[in-house]
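Entry 14. Structure prediction run on the chain below.
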Amino acid sequence: MPFWLLALVAEAMAGPVDMYGFGAASIGRGQGGVSVADGGMTIFRNPALLQDLEWAEASIGYGLYRTNLPATPDVYWDTNRDGTLDGTDDPLSVPTQAPDADGMSISMARNIGDRVGVALNAFFPSDRLMMFGTTEPALPTWVMFGNRTQRIDLSLGMGADLYKGLSLGAAVEVVAMARYQIAGTIDVGVGSADSEEDEAGDLVDSIVVDIHEMSLDIVPRAIPILGFHWDVGELIESMDGLNLGLVWRSASGIPIDAKIDLQLNGSIRDLGDLNDVAATLVMPVELGIFDHYVPERWSFGASYQYKSALAYLDVHRTIWSGMRVNVAQVTASEIQSQIFQVEEDVVDDANQYSALFVDTTEIHAGAEVHLPVISRKGGHGGVLPVLRIGGGLIPSPLDSQEVGTAFLDSDRILGTLGAGVVYNDPFELVPGPVRWDVFYTWQKLADGILQVTDKIVRPGMPVGGKPIPIGGSLWSAGAQMTVSF
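Output returned:
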């Protein structure tokens, strides 16, 4: 896929926070700022910045997140479920748009003395707490979207100033792992027909479905995040205003181990001269599913503050080569029966796929300027307006794939705008400043096509051999309020 040569770039998606950013100020200036302190809203970017807290803070915000992706052509599929792909099957229409990812952001932070800060950051999707789902690799699928943004994102962290502007921070991003188990029995009874004219279906006396056990365990997992921050001016006076940051985040995700134990009992009785027969077919299957993949990432950032203006530049190295797509894989299976024997290696996984994901290097940048203070009547100080702008490039980690899969992704360019006001509470409910911030972001996906060249019609192939379009856009908008106390 083409790599667009731009000066401003942003990071590839991993989850809701990686996709949209966190904190209205950071989002409005380009979804970044590894070396820029934003009070308590910095854990996901760099927990070492928490040492900059001067007040206890509480923030709440809400954002709208939408996709506008091109429609894909209808595809061939066994829609009538008769086991064959032919002219009796109506084409399958594949939905394009990812689910809305509107959600609420919350931050609680507090300084401990003048050298330590602690905080909790969280993103909650408004429609659901978490969504799991698997991908059929033969159908056109936007592999970096879908349910990847449909989960809670929670992080706890702290930062401490160690020596003259040098600070360290650590945090854990909380995800989950799941274990799902189902065991059941299907009993089918076959008897004699009343007359020769009766259809074969009349031989079935009864079908009984009995689910014995279903269980789902959600177990928390922690992704470690380590951060470093250096306020260079604290040691080198001539470089006052320069800040540097370095962050490492571990790879993780949400593995789901699914165990399905089905038993089919069949009985034949009163069927001509045949003796009564009872037989069972036992089919235990273990599935491995890995959803909400979070890649390992190294981030470096530099920022410079000069009077009322701020500019920053971030560089990320994201290790997408270990990407695991949310495709269900059969990890173990067998068939047991008294009537016939099936070798274990005969059972194949129809969801095998081959796609190459590569590591990406991203840069994103932005600026912020404080405008002159607007005076207020009543002796409550003034209102400080703030303007922000940023942008970037999000290179796609999807490098190539084999015939039989239809994963879709594309490089993206990012543009952001933000604004805010800071003022003292006129009602004196809180002693510290109150901040209101708004943001708008837009991402344009690089145009392209995925051309399917198979000569043999197969499930998932576009009807008539039409190309699958790639492109579209994403946008988000939101607001946030922060109070200091």
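Helices lie at 16-20, 24-28.
Filed with the rest of this week's runs.
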